């Protein structure tokens, strides 16, 4: 079968909280007329991203076309999770015209591109493009590079870079695999910071990959979809730290779920969560919380200590109003300490 007969799939990668779900939501809301399907992979399962995207209620991406795979890492579970999910989407009477795959923020995307060589997938699907969403303020704050000069020097000497900081490794892998890079959250960057982040991206992604700037992932789907990269045929140009690792189990990071009591007030809750994130260097915290006396559930999202919240929908009558937060951090995160602060 020729590439043209294949269904294009766009892989959206990017570090925890960079804005992948926000960008995909924008595509859903603006790519009218194109039948879409979504495959979402989360690290630390509370199904927040799936819920946000389902809540869009977009006609050309009905609920049955939104598949959540909660098994940590898509690329490691191709046979068990990813391939069957894709096969099920392909078996729909109304096949999707384009599939969007959101990787977990900790995924190294190349192994997922490799999954497109899987015998039940390859004849039907092609990787239209890998889009790497970059969290502008996080890069500007130096989250992904402890020592830029040392990295540049090491890169000049050898292709394989040994990072002390696992965040750098994930960030670098995502850029090295990209066909398009979106520098997101420009609303939070000064002109100088934007220039500095651009320089760091350019230094990290040596291929001539197009870089776009965005706020809230607001880019025209006509630019994001239809890149025609056939990335699965171009794996050699996408070096990955995964290439040199026997195993790949994200053991540099950990996540857990904390159930908290209903909160009295959103502002007080968010201040408390931000204090916890700050005190324990939490990378990402998100979930739905009950606010006493309110019929709506509160969606809370933290990237580092920066939080956003909104009432997203009423609790359903048959729903357990548990307030559950997924907490993600680097290995060694003080679970007991975080839990104690969240539940006290
Ligand atoms: N200020 C600002 N906030 C943004 C922007 N894009 C996304 N956010 C917020 O950043 C947080 C994370 O955004 P998501 O779209 O959930 O990020 P993600 O990459 O899907 O996160 P994970 O799936 O957890 O890795 C949310 O609170 C968003 O509202 C932006 O351009 N500017």
Automatic annotation (TrEMBL):
<dbReference type="Pfam" id="PF07683">
    <property type="entry name" value="CobW_C"/>
</dbReference>
<dbReference type="Pfam" id="PF02492">
    <property type="entry name" value="cobW"/>
</dbReference>
<dbReference type="GO" id="GO:0016787">
    <property type="term" value="F:hydrolase activity"/>
</dbReference>
<dbReference type="InterPro" id="IPR012824">
    <property type="entry name" value="CobW"/>
</dbReference>
<keyword id="KW-0143">Chaperone</keyword>
<dbReference type="GO" id="GO:0000166">
    <property type="term" value="F:nucleotide binding"/>
</dbReference>
<dbReference type="InterPro" id="IPR036627">
    <property type="entry name" value="CobW-likC_sf"/>
</dbReference>
<protein>
    <submittedName>
        <fullName>Cobalamin biosynthesis protein CobW</fullName>
    </submittedName>
</protein>
<dbReference type="GO" id="GO:0009236">
    <property type="term" value="P:cobalamin biosynthetic process"/>
</dbReference>
<dbReference type="InterPro" id="IPR051316">
    <property type="entry name" value="Zinc-reg_GTPase_activator"/>
</dbReference>
<comment type="similarity">
    <text>Belongs to the SIMIBI class G3E GTPase family. ZNG1 subfamily.</text>
</comment>
<feature type="domain" description="CobW C-terminal">
    <location>
        <begin position="253"/>
        <end position="342"/>
    </location>
</feature>
<comment type="function">
    <text>Zinc chaperone that directly transfers zinc cofactor to target proteins, thereby activating them. Zinc is transferred from the CXCC motif in the GTPase domain to the zinc binding site in target proteins in a process requiring GTP hydrolysis.</text>
</comment>
<dbReference type="GO" id="GO:0005737">
    <property type="term" value="C:cytoplasm"/>
</dbReference>
<keyword id="KW-0547">Nucleotide-binding</keyword>
<dbReference type="InterPro" id="IPR003495">
    <property type="entry name" value="CobW/HypB/UreG_nucleotide-bd"/>
</dbReference>
<keyword id="KW-0378">Hydrolase</keyword>
<dbReference type="InterPro" id="IPR011629">
    <property type="entry name" value="CobW-like_C"/>
</dbReference>
<dbReference type="InterPro" id="IPR027417">
    <property type="entry name" value="P-loop_NTPase"/>
</dbReference>
